[in-house]
Amino acid sequence: MQADHLLFTGVIRGSDDNKLGNVVESWSMSHHSADDADPKPSRIQMRNRKRILEAALDVFSQHGYRGATLDQIAESAGLSKPNILYYFSGKEDIHVTLLNGLMDTWLAPMREIDPEGDPLNEILRYVRRKLEMSREFPRESRLFANEVLQGAPRIGPHFGADLKPLVDETAQLIESWSKQGRLAPVDARHLIFSIWSTTQHYADFDAQVQALLPDDDTHAGAQEFLDTLYKRLLSP
Amino acid sequence: MQADHLLFTGVIRGSDDNKLGNVVESWSMSHHSADDADPKPSRIQMRNRKRILEAALDVFSQHGYRGATLDQIAESAGLSKPNILYYFSGKEDIHVTLLNGLMDTWLAPMREIDPEGDPLNEILRYVRRKLEMSREFPRESRLFANEVLQGAPRIGPHFGADLKPLVDETAQLIESWSKQGRLAPVDARHLIFSIWSTTQHYADFDAQVQALLPDDDTHAGAQEFLDTLYKRLLSP
DNA sequence: GCGTTTTTTTACCATATGGTAAAACAACGA
DNA sequence: TCGTTGTTTTACCATATGGTAAAAAAACGC
Known about the structure:
2 copies of one chain form a homodimer. Chain A is 74% helix and 0% strand. By secondary structure, chain A is mainly α. In chain A, helix 3 crosses helix 6, helix 3 packs across helix 8 and helix 6 (91-111) runs parallel beside helix 9 (156-179). The two termini of chain A are 33 Å apart. Chains A and B meet through helix 3, helix 8, helix 9, helix 10 and helix 11 of A and helix 3, helix 8, helix 9, helix 10 and helix 11 of B. The first copy, chain A, binds a DNA duplex (30 and 30 nucleotides) through residues 42, 44-45, 48, 69-71, 79-83, 85-86, 90-91.
């Protein structure tokens, strides 16, 4: 799977059990009475919902929830505002849909940490993937950052449901590695925070990074630095 | 100077050559013709501008620029909206004033790195101070994060003027330390980014951190982790 | 082709919001 | 105390914005 589309990958590719699939499902739910089976969304529904979410990702990630307007989203999607409200029940619905769809994808790299793999190697691979995501999907990163910055009013519930179990599990794995002496001892949760913050920094604070860095080499430099950082921290 | 008041320290404490002092000065500038000398702002002006900026810091840091409303600021400041516009020329003026006042303070810890001190010690002290600032001044951190996330539309100019020279200088210092073998070799600029991101993370992503951490020990744990992180990275 | 359903457009609305004018009021110096 | 200056309130306004109703236009099933 190429890394040039995250949020909308599966749908674009045509698979049917994925983020946008769920998204469309949830739409059906909100427009039909609960008794009839979900009629499969038409080609045109798929296309337009996709367009809207794409446009909304642009706008929300750039201006934040309140800073974004339906008109901007509509314009960017090439649809009229009422038309957008035909597909989504409101501004918040779009935002939540985006956030929900993003969650799984965002956590995927952590899920891919292999308990059977070489500890240091697994962590370094995770760091690299997270950094890659910052480069490839800065909009998603900023959407997320905006939401959490404002106190996670809309995604907060997911923290307990999806994020926490995964983090707990991963932290346990890392700490078991530490105890076995296969990693230098660290607080696994703070380690995870540091990985998130250092990698996402390059997307979320891009304006600052660009202003301070000689340019172009940004990502290569970051990659190398983070590699060194976590090698020195974690080598047993 | 204690670290329990950042942006408004001096004024609250009554000293007169500090951020808010400058803030008030800039106000005078915008309300009088340029030919007469600045009449010193009255007690009441100081007090009300202070209140407004305090309230605005609350509101802007919580909701972002566009998410914040003058009415919220007014309410929080205990003044009427038109009254607020008597002291500031508009919403943007308040925001810019806040950001400008914050800049110096935000950079202070970096300025305090002592070229004569012990390298590792100086960096660790810097990390600790930054982390402390995240704990003590989360609003300021979020205000900043919000601004940079949106592309630094209002603070961008400062990057070239204030931030870049200081970062360049500090990076040079760190790299000279590296070359002298007093620090393990690192890319100084990425090191700085990592310090910023890991420390500010605890303020900016507090909603997430709180959801994932067993609680209370948050800061002690962070402190210890970051200490370890940078010791292992930088010990020669 | 034709009736039915889905999609899109046109024309609105209510509210929120940044901002202003000018009157009322308070403080202050003479 | 009076006039002047500085401060606050009252009453507004223009625009932006999220959202709706209902007609018009496509699409679709047969």
